[in-house]
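subagent[fold] <- orchestrator: predict structure for attached chain, return tokens only, no commentary.
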Amino acid sequence: MFKPRRVNAPKLDERFKAERLAQTLPPLILAAENLVNAHDMGVHGRRRAGTGEDFWQFKQYGPGDPVSSIDWRQSAKREHIYIRQKEQETAETVWIWRDTSQTMDYGSGQTEQSKLDRATLLSLALALSLSKSGEKFGLVGQTEKASTGPASFNRFVDRTAEVQSPSITDLTFADQLSSKSTVVLISDFLVEPSEIIEVIRHVVSLGCRGFLMHIADPVEVDLPFNGRTRFVSLTEEDDITLGRVEIVREDYQSLFNAHQQELLKIAKNVSWDYCFHRTDAPASEAFAALYTALNIRGAKA
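subagent[fold] -> orchestrator:
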């Protein structure tokens, strides 16, 4: 399994991480607001279609749909029976998990943000956008139920600063998830594919759909070093030193690409969305992928 090591990255204890997050959170909140506002301007006017105030769409009638929702006029025009679906009936709860494991602390210096900072920015931007659109959301690990609105976003910010995210393997024990929830997992996914599969199977068994946001530092992708290089592990593994790192670059990149393709395959097998995002790319690209996949509505007037 691909598991790159980090270059000259210090081991951070939890207290240091908490203090660092407290310092970086305010500018990340501002960056999230700018990100959402810029994106909203780009999709201005793209609201859910319909003639009624709460109308969203016509949906083919299926098991569990109330007979009273059948739109006989539309059904007469079509081959199948359709119901008239309203916005509140299509609303889903979005649970956001951002990986706070040690490997996420890495930032190579070729980008302004570490993987954790980028994951936090995307989490905040997503929560803010959901808040503006009236969708329910929550942070995996918080004790409160998912909710929506400005107060919920403020609570999300507080929990982002206070709550240590459960590890990806502990997500199989998350008790907030319920049917019709959407789970957004933001991580570098530097774990065995089998562990990711186990988590996804658990989430799917609960009737949830999901999104994998795969984040990587450009150095982790390209391995651009030459000559003697020391790789310092952020985990409990031993550090290693390579005399000529360029010799292994091609094999390394092949392993990285294979791991990325395995994640894509895992997501496709359960009809989840997957996005690979380098931290040297604009955060707006990753946010746009989330926004589109989750079909977030424009901010309510």
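orchestrator: received. Logging for downstream: Strands lie at 6-7, 55-60, 82-86, 93-98, 137-139, 181-187, 209-216, 229-232, 240-242, 273-278. Confidence is low (pLDDT under 50) at residues 1-12, 44-53.
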